[in-house]
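Dear support,

Our group has been running a series of protein-ligand predictions, and this particular one with 2-(butylsulfanyl)adenosine is the one our PI (initials K.S.) wants archived with full inputs and outputs. We had some confusion internally about which version of the output was final, so please treat the block below as the authoritative record. The input we submitted was:
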Amino acid sequence: MTKKPSLHPASVEELTPIEARAEHARLHEEIAAHDRRYYQEDAPTISDADYDALRRRYEELERAFPELATAQSLTKTVGAKPSEKFAKVKHVVPMLSLGNVFSDEELEEFVARVRRFLGLRDGPLRFTFEPKIDGLSCSLRYEKGHLVQAATRGDGYEGEDVTANVRTIDEIPQRLRGDHSDIFEVRGEVYMTHKDFAALNARQQESGKTLFANPRNAAAGSLRQLDSKITASRPLHFFAYGWGETSALPANTQLGVLDALRRYGLPVNPLTTLCESSEDMLAHYRAIETQRATLGYDIDGVVYKVDDIALQERLGFVSRAPRWAVARKFPAERATTILRDIEIQVGRTGALTPVARLEPVTVGGVVVQNATLHNEDEIARKDIRIGDTVVVQRAGDVIPQIVDVVKEKRPTGAKPYQFPHVCPRCGSAALREIDEKTGEADVVRRCTGSLVCPAQAIERLKHFASRNAMDIEGLGDKQIELFFQEGLIRTPSDIFTLEERDRASLTKIKNREGYGETSVRNLFAAIEARRSVPINRFIFALGVRHVGETNARRLARHFGDFESLRETARDASLGSEARARIDSIDGVGPVVAEALHDFFAEPHNERELDALLKRITLEPMPAVASTSPVSGKTVVFTGALERLTRDEAKAQAERFGAHVAASVSKKTDLVVAGPGAGSKLKKAAELGIEVISEDEWFKRTGQG
Ligand code: IVH
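Confirmed final output from the archive:
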């Protein structure tokens, strides 16, 4: 555990791209080797803190040199990839993670969000309360009551087959008791108690073996053993908290299913209970906070879940976490240190994010030297200045943050921080969008040089060439990454000079790995074929903020030719006639108008557009072909919907490719009306627009 990681002494900003690449490759090897030792050999050779330092440096390199963040990057792997030594198991129902809240206010916001989504202003809404066990999650598959397979979470979609090891855990039944459905996947946490952990480490020490850092690592190391005799010798426990694939559920509430699991013979945490109100939810949390030290096993917070399973289903998931559940984590640990510098990073979408560079300090056992400062307003609100003594907070696995400034320790002469108004990567203007309704500036300042900014380049290029944009076959994400890293393609126009340059021997694509004569010829042919594209595709391909395919079509339809869009957008400063013109295009509105102006008024983008338009020809927009019965249609929902909330209806319609408008106009194709619909219904009748019921909507979208 004493080996120190070999970190480069220079700060990332001082590195040349070549040095950065070399260091990144070296760290990649080093971290991968540590991962192997930790996850597969159960024998780490460095401390968690030192490992974290390596990871942080690796991530820092990728932030400063985004071209290093390829699909193979270790930052792209979620959780631990299933190890080669175990057979892999695909999770039919993915094992996802949970969103986190850290305060009473955030918990109340979560409850409010759930209510809003469900359209439940008041009225009962029950949540279960469960301790969040700090172990590793495991999926147990029972078929006709027999345990047939056990798998770790892995990356959420594919885990490791640990059946033989799980069979050694006494608490996990080999056969379910009583009545149960044919297929039942039980999900829960494998953990180790404090007492067993201490005894195991004592044994490890006696026999000169590596000590485990905490009970969670010990449980993970014990479950992921190749030899199940070793697992059998390690006392592991299990708490069930959910389910994966099932042929039928034994109850229609979370608590009901947990009760059934208990009847089947599985351990369910005895502190699991039901909350009738937000007050209840907070009170249970307070109670467990005080009990925590005496539980005998680690919990890192609590989990709240909407109890009613039908509601869980309506709420669904956002990205990798359910909308119907949230984890409340225990408070973070804090420390004070000096803020050495504020660095502005430019994200892949052009967002400028301030990052604090700190005098390294240990917070909760991890060395922290970078922390997030959130945004410009936060820095101003807290009046954070370079040289200040600041309070750093770290909670669970979230990025450390600066929560306070110790003003008494401020060095004389420290000046208020001036957030840059130009992009540090490309020199384009960095602006904050103004909300026309409230007149307030967006919290995020963004680089407007999206066509030229190196920080945004790869994402932009991928978008530009993608299927729904320019649709350049053979120029997928991988090829773009390769060509970008080698400096062959930096901006969209470079795509169209690639062949020319290749002929002139300025590039040598043919000799590249995976590029034979035929593939080079095919690539050039695909590029050639896209020298003439419909104008709407081109507008979409530019990747202007808020301009998706629908808006691109609207703009193409309205302006007809690209030059008039370009001129109007360039002239569309706030309050101008040009701005009003864009603003008034049906469905477009002020946010898009502002984004278009910011994009077309930026000289760097202008130059790139000139270069592009020299090489490609724009065709008129083709007629739209529809794929699903409502795809491409403009739909208006009105009246009281009974089966859906407005948010849900909108999300659903968009999923089926429809566009949802707030009011009925000539452009509306379909009105979905519930009871009590008024003026919109009248307007629809006047305009001869089709009106259907909510039930008919479900039928038409193939939902029965
Ligand atoms: S529910 C989609 N309930 O926490 C629902 N998870 O941060 C996902 N965990 O991967 C999980 N106790 O390993 C749930 N009572 C509990 C839990 C729990 C511990 C772990 C689990 C999960 C992680 C998410």
